[in-house]
Amino acid sequence: MYHSLQARLEQYPYSHTQNAASPEWIAEAEQELGYRLPDSYVWWLTHYGSLFFNRQDGVYSLAPPDFREDAIDDLLYNHRLDAEADWIPDGRLYIYRPDEDEGYYWDVSAPVHEPGIAVEYPIMRVDMLDGSEDVYARSFAEFVEQMLTVRGY
Q1: For the chain, what is the mean pLDDT?
Q2: Distance from the Cα of residue 148 to its chain's centroid
């Protein structure tokens, strides 16, 4: 299903398979969030789990539960920080923050709860300086494809 993306990720030097998430970690994350994670993200988590678009900032993944509170690139850790700060509008789940100027988040304003239904949420890009937003990708897989293209992979 994701063969072309997999081939591209295998050529990209900052994508790693040793940090793949277990199905239990994914189930725990979905339970805490209260909705299902996107299918292409779940595929990526179980096959890779680590992806950096620059050498410092990674796409949020799922760290082992015992290390989650120390993992700055953990999806749940960052979601909890956002909830505590109470500045993120409802319906946003950030997936990547490369710097203070921009961020990428899933629009989860209409979350999917039911099993057996295909799940993808659009990924929005927000300019943190002027507040403008636009749809960057229709799925996590498309988000990764576009980020790889920008970097020449």
Answers
A1: 91
A2: 15
